[in-house]
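Reopening this one. Same input as before:
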Amino acid sequence: SLVANQYADKINADPFEERRAKLRKMLDVESPNFQEIISLRANVGGVEVLADLLADESAAVRKHAYEAIVRRVYRMFPGLTVEVTDNGPSDLDCKYTFQYPDVPSEGEPITRGGYAPVVPSFSALKDLLAKPIPLEDSTGKSVNAIAVVIGPKAFKGDTSGFYSTDDEFKEMIKETESLLKASAGALKAAGVRKFSIMAAQAPNTPRYATFLVEDGWAESLTCRDMRGTFRHLLEVARLDQEYDDLERIVPVIGRSSHVFVGTKKGEARGKLGKPKTVFAHIITHTVDMKAQDWMQWPETLLVSAVDELERARLNPEVGTKPNSHILVHFNSLVDLEPLVVAEMLENFINGFVAEHGTRLQRSKVDEIALKVGIGSEAAGRTHTLRLTASSTTGEYLKTSALFERADALTGAPVSWCDAKSGDERGLLDASEGRMQLKRQIARAAGSTYAPEFLGMMKVELIKKWGAYREAGGQRPTPSDLFKSAELVLGADGELAESSRSPGENNVGVLAWRCTMATPEYPEGRDVVLIANDVTFQAGSFGVAEDIVFQKASEYARARGLPRIHIACNSGARVGLAEELKAYVKAKWTDSEDPSKGFDFLYLEEEDYNRFEDGTVVAREETVNGKKVFAIDSIIGEGLKSTAGGIGVENLQGSGLIAGETSRAYNEIFTLSYVTGRSVGIGAYLNRLGQRVIQMVNGPMILTGFGALNKLLGKKVYTSQDQLGGPQVMVPNGVTHKLVQSDQDGVSAILDWLAFTPKTASDSPPLLDPTDPPERDVTFVPSKTPYDPRHMLAGTTTPEGEKLTGFFDEGSFQECLDGWGRSVVTGRAKLGGIPMGVIAVETRNVDRRVPADPANPASQEVLEPQAGQVWFPDSAHKTAAAIRDFNRGENLPLMIFANWRGFSGGTRDMYNEVLKFGAQIVDALVEYKHPVFVYIPPGGELRGGSWVVIDPAINPAQMEMYADVESRGGILEPAGIVEVKFRAPQQKELMHRLDPELQRLDALLEGSASSEVGKGDAEEDVEAQIRAREEKLAPLYTQIACEFADLHDRAGRMEAKGVIRKGLEWRRAREYFYWRVRRRLIEQDAVRRLQEVDTAISVEDARSTVASWAAEEDDKAAVAALEAVDIDAKVEAARIEALKRKVREVYEQLPEAERASALP
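Same output, byte for byte:
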């Protein structure tokens, strides 16, 4: 698609001849507006068009065209003077002077001389170099440049495509190198440092080649087909100095874009080879930071740079492994205060990373640098600002602003200082190589280096605040969105906050206390982040890792903080005592015939003594007359290879953190994000923490597929995904949410935290509603099957009509969507109040049971599941979701009840539908927060499905409501009619109500009273009655069903006290908003009263709170409760409780001692 866009731009451009004619007209004047001409877009007034005019019949056009070329190439170079001499078509000379734009302003800047002749063909270049060079070495430092233009028809062969001239151009370059080496003395005398040729090949862009004195006048391959000035402006010289085997990747998409790949000099070779880096460098001459929409152009350039990286990775020389850097040089001056520009660029780059994080991750971008000049045309450049977002220190794209100073001679940047403090800084961190290797290892594992998740969280916070403000949120964005402190295990065995640099850990588990300002908690909230460092022994769990994990989890539990686990590991660490391998020997049963086996393994006495006590348990034996030590057990004490644990000690540690994680789930909010892979105990930790976000490339497995193949004795499995990938873990309910990248994973973590309270004892976070609570719900559920998500979140009809749902627009977050699909679960906000949600799928769905690759006879099975029915998987899902909402999330729960019952067939009974249905009751019994059961319009709640969610299960928390158009009862009308309103009773009703049957009954009765025997007339009447009954049967079945249905309506439910109220769907949103708010305020007040007075019962605390606001209307009650000084009332309760305790203690003293207890 990138190439297609490139060709589309070419096709959409005006024909070359038209562009040439327009440009010629602008030049064929006495004094052309060069500023206007050089500002033209490249495809309008680029060098290829100007160069084609160098052979024009008009001397003025030729001269002006050449001056425009020089001014275009050297725009923004200060001190530029241009003097062109026209000697005829394709025979011009130009002498010019210039200064490098970003050298120190103090002192006398070096003015460089340039000589740029135009020759009609390459053969003329030989004659040119034989002549004296019209340049002087005024500085004695070789600062001058020669740029020869060959054309406009430089090539004799095919010029249909840009690279059609490759062979001819390479011959030109080869001869030029020879000519320059032969003329080295003359070039030195003229102070020439750089020699370049531009070979025109209209309508294509010209070919370029650059030759440098420091390279012995050999061509600089990295500058092939690059303007001579770009080597300086795009910092190619710096890359040449710092990277080995630097290679330019062609072709590129944009004419001002250049892509390179290289290996850092002195880089150590790791298991994955020497880490390479891909560079996308772009130059632009346009940026107006005073314009309101100034960010659009930098964003376009950065997106273009990412496009270049994605295309470059298709090149086999690059591939997908290398990291990437981006540089955009704004070669223009910005007339603003430097720190103002720095802040603007920092905000822009943070927003860009937040918006395009997934693409940046996919392209493995570790650094983005924006380089811009500060100053004005009048005053010149005062500063060169370099705003960098870099992961080289271990933090994800951390921004920093530097002032840059260039070498006066070469123009290359050589020193930097912090824009705010002025402290000298190096451009590259000393640890960059180590960090790059760690990132490469993490990426090879399919993940991200653990400390970089911190920066990704900051980036996502910026994005969340942007979305909140766009939705109409009024809370101001805090200046400090994210900070973290690493929790490091100290010598005392306890965790302490540390500010050490990333990569200094000697344990494969890292932990941080992170403080993040979210829209829900702008003042900041804390979470504990625990991450496997996959770059340390493959992220395996040894004893030290188990201790850090357990301590960090305890740290979170002790403070009630959410615990997030970034899981990328290889399970419990396995190893052997490597140091013994070189010394262990075997006592052969028959030394002449090893095939008879061995008796034991042993160490010779000398070797036994070289190891510390505790290395092995051994007994003395004699082998060949020598004392040896037969090994009974290898302990491995004191050995380096066993220092982190190698066996059962690691299994014990795994049990430690498994138990800790189970306790954590019961006490605080726990969430695991699986990236890369999670093996053995790593997989169990995810499940024990219950809530799981899985990246598509993050399988959870117990044993690798290779080990299973060995166990089975054949190649059955081909990937870890077959065992624990998303296609397994999403349908089985282990994975709650699936994401495509680590950036998406971090976004999903923050989305989940938006529904989670600060601590396990707090109420969920409240936001001011951006979607009015009082609005109507315009999507109306029906009795026919529909998507329940539309009821929750709203939808747009095919005709374009927007229908609103029950919850706030855009707030519904579904989870467990691939498991138990006959039930929909998730989280949503009602007027800014977070809530757990359970709804019913009314449509038929399929449950997929995959074939087992280990059993060739097995086949995939699709089991149909009817809507409005609980099956084993959906009942299990319901119970699991209720437990998740209750533990750590503290969410009020809304259940949209629309079940006809449980599936009780043989297969489903065998699959434990009874057990999972009972678990729904268990989960509701222990629910500690408000629960609202609502039968929606067109919905029905029958039999056992009513029983498991009836408020009598937990009357302190549960309330039930029914829409006025809903139904509830034991059996459906058609079912109860079969039992309680059968055909005979229906016929009785017919005979009572139908006039025709009444007439026939009278006739029949008259016939029966006659003394004449039963004749034809009577039989005819009976036949008429039967016919009438048959005709009326369908209608009276409907009447019977309607009669039964009248027993199931909201009016009876409310009259019998089984529901609290009948509601109208359209206004239900507003009703529940105020009801939930009231319940939450009351619940929080009850909790606080019980905290200060442990003797008060829940009932008494509720009565006390109820006395503060006796209003029946929930909205009025909320207003009354908010007007109450609850803090003061809680404090008064605390004082009364203390007084009571003091009296109780005082009265327990002997009467003789009471006086002495008083002051």
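So the earlier flakiness isn't reproducible anymore. For the record, The two ends are 88 Å apart (CA to CA).
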